[in-house]
Specification:
The complex is a heterodimer of chains A (112) and B (111). With 112 residues, chain A is mainly β. Chain A is built from no helices and 11 strands. Chain A is globular and about 35 Å long. Chain B is mainly beta and 111 residues long. Helices cover 0% and strands 55% of the residues of chain B. Chain B has no helices and 11 strands. In chain B, the strands form 2 sheets. In chain B, strands 2, 4, 5, 9, 10 and 11 form a 6-stranded mixed sheet that branches. The chains are: A mainly beta (112), B mainly beta (111). At the A-B interface, strand 5 and strand 10 of A face strand 4, strand 5 and strand 9 of B.
Chain lengths: 112, 111
C-alpha cells in the first residue's frame, strides 16, 4: 500500500511565523504535490514537483515556497504565515503523469 | 467556464437507492479520468479510474462520454457508509503532470 505521511495533523501558528509542513511518501513516486482545500473552493494546487530539486508553481503559489531535496520528501514552507493561510493542506504523490494520486491525511493549519 | 464542473449537491437518497453523479470537463484533449471519495475532514482516496469502455467495481460503475465530455459515477444499492463527497479528476495530455479536480458532489444516504 502506498503511504503518504504528513508531519502534523493539526497545527496552530501565529501571524508572521515561518511554518514548515513536511510530506513523505514511501513508494518511490516521481511526482509530489501540495494542495490546500477550503470549503466551497475545492482542491487548489500550490506547488508540484516532478523530480528531486525540481518544482513548478501551481495555481496559488503566492506566500508559499517548497523544497524537494530527496525523492521521498516534499516540504511546503509558509515564509510569513497570515490568517488567510488558515486551511487544510494536503500532500499527494503519483508514480507518473496521468495516473492516480495518493493523498496524505492532511494538516489542518490555523493561523491566529 | 471552469475546466471541471460538478454539481455540489447534496444528493440526499434513502438506503438502497441508485444515484448517479456527472462531472463535465471542457478540454477535449483530456485523457485520464478518476473518481475519488472524500470523507468529512479526511483526505481524498481513489475510488476508481474511468476507462473508455466504462468499468465497474461492485456497486460502482464509471462511464466516460467523450462526445459530450463528461464522466459519470453510478452507485447502486446505496449504503449509509457511501455518504461522502465524490471528487472527479481529469488529466490533460500535453505535458501537464497535474489532473484538475472538480469541487466535489456531496452524497448523503439516510436510513
Amino acid at each position: 500500500d502506498v503511504k503518504v505521511t504528513q508531519s502534523s495533523r493539526y497545527l496552530v501558528k501565529r501571524t508572521g511565523e515561518k511554518v514548515f509542513l513536511e510530506c513523505v511518501q514511501d513508494m518511490d513516486h516521481e511526482n509530489m504535490f501540495w494542495y490546500r482545500q477550503d470549503p466551497g473552493l475545492g482542491l487548489r494546487l500550490i506547488y508540484f514537483s516532478y523530480d528531486v530539486k525540481m518544482k513548478e508553481k501551481g495555481d496559488i503559489p503566492e506566500g508559499y515556497s517548497v523544497s524537494r531535496e530527496k525523492k521521498e520528501r516534499f516540504s511546503l514552507i509558509l515564509e510569513s504565515a497570515s490568517t488567510n493561510q488558515t486551511s487544510m493542506y494536503l500532500c499527494a504523490s503519483s508514480p507518473s503523469a496521468f495516473v492516480e494520486q495518493y493523498f496524505g491525511p492532511g494538516t489542518r493549519l490555523t493561523v491566529t | 467556464r471552469k475546466e471541471v464542473e460538478q454539481d455540489p449537491g447534496p444528493f440526499n437518497v434513502p438506503e438502497g437507492a441508485t444515484v448517479a453523479f456527472n462531472c463535465t470537463y471542457s478540454n477535449s484533449a483530456s485523457q485520464s479520468f478518476f473518481w475519488y471519495r472524500q470523507d468529512c475532514r479526511k483526505e481524498p482516496k481513489l475510488l476508481m479510474s474511468v476507462y473508455s469502455s466504462g468499468n465497474e467495481d461492485g456497486r460502482f460503475t464509471a462511464q466516460l462520454n467523450r462526445a459530450s465530455q463528461y464522466i459519470s459515477l453510478l452507485i447502486r444499492d446505496s449504503k449509509l457508509s457511501d455518504s461522502a463527497t465524490y471528487l472527479c479528476a481529469v488529466g490533460v495530455s500535453g505535458g501537464s503532470y497535474i489532473p484538475t479536480f472538480g469541487r466535489g458532489t456531496s452524497l448523503i444516504v439516510h436510513p
